[in-house]
């Protein structure tokens, strides 16, 4: 690996991110993935983007569905982060804690925030695709205590 790539990896390990589960429903079947690569994009229209690896199981379906939901995880939801990042746990992913709306997208109850988006654009780059969503509905949890990921570990934000 070149020094630049290794240094980029080290730099990214020093960037703290909130942890999200991106959820969709495909022909009645809920799917999701743990993703830190999420960013607000614009306020007019209210929109965000997520970056998804083309090898992830939901990637192909995300390109087809009308909606996706960004579930920003609460600190108490580290187990969800681990489950949606572990391909051996596909069968367990939606058994508890979810409202599965298959008209649009599943929503994680008790999430720090749930941001339901209408999927609009998609852009492939390298190993990933950027998906853009226009915000349609938002729910937030009153206490502000998100799960964060930094230097390979889960943690919390000390205000
Ligand atoms: C903390 C963390 C953050 C992650 N962020 C992303 C991400 O932003 N985009 C992505 O495509 N995969 C990301 N992943 C990897 C996926 O969660 C993982 O590959 C997942 O198992 C893919 O889903 P699948 O098993 O259904 O294919 C992340 C994993 C972890 C543990």
Describe this entry's structure for a reader.
By secondary structure, the chain is mainly β. It has one domain (3-156): Electron Transport, Fmn-binding Protein, Chain A (Pnp Oxidase, Chain A), CATH 2.30.110. The protein contains three helices and twelve strands; from the N terminus they run αβββββαβαββββββ. Strands 3-2-6-9-10-5-4 form a seven-stranded antiparallel beta sheet. The protein has a three-stranded antiparallel beta sheet with strand order 1-11-12, with no helix packed on it. A hairpin with a 2-residue loop joins strand 9 (113-125) and strand 10. The longest helix is centred in the N-terminal third of the chain and has 11 residues, at 3-13.
Strand order of the largest sheet: 3-2-6-9-10-5-4
CATH C-level label: Mainly Beta
Give the name of the CATH architecture: Roll
What structural category arises from helix and sheet content?
A: mainly beta
Question: What is the count of helical runs?
Answer: 3
Largest sheet properties? 7 strands, antiparallel
Which residue ranges are poorly predicted, with pLDDT under 50 across at least 5 consecutive positions? none
Could you tell me the mean pLDDT? 97
Helix content: 10-25%
List the ions, cofactors and other small molecules found in this model.
flavin mononucleotide
Could you tell me how far the N terminus lies from the C terminus, measured between alpha carbons in angstroms? 37 Å
Radius of gyration: 15 Å
The coarse overall form would be: globular
Can you count the beta strands? 12
- Going by CATH, the homologous superfamily would be Electron Transport, Fmn-binding Protein, Chain A
What's the CATH topology name? Pnp Oxidase, Chain A
């Amino acid at each position: 690996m070149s020094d630049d790539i290794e240094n980029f990896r080290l730099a990214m390990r020093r960037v703290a991110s909130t942890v999200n589960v991106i959820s969709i429903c495909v022909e009645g079947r809920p799917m999701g993935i743990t993703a830190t690569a999420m960013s607000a994009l614009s306020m007019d229209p209210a929109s965000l983007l997520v970056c998804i690896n083309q090898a992830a199981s939901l990637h192909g379906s995300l390109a087809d569905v009308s909606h996706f939901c960004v579930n920003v995880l609460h600190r108490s939801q580290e187990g969800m982060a681990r489950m949606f990042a572990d391909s051996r746990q596909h069968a367990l992913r939606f058994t508890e804690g979810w409202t599965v709306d298959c008209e649009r997208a599943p929503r994680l109850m008790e999430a720090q925030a749930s941001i339901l988006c209408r999927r609009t654009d998609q852009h492939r780059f390298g190993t990933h695709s950027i998906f853009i969503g226009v915000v349609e509905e938002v729910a937030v949890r009153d206490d502000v205590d998100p799960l964060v990921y930094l230097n390979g570990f889960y943690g919390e934000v000390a205000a």
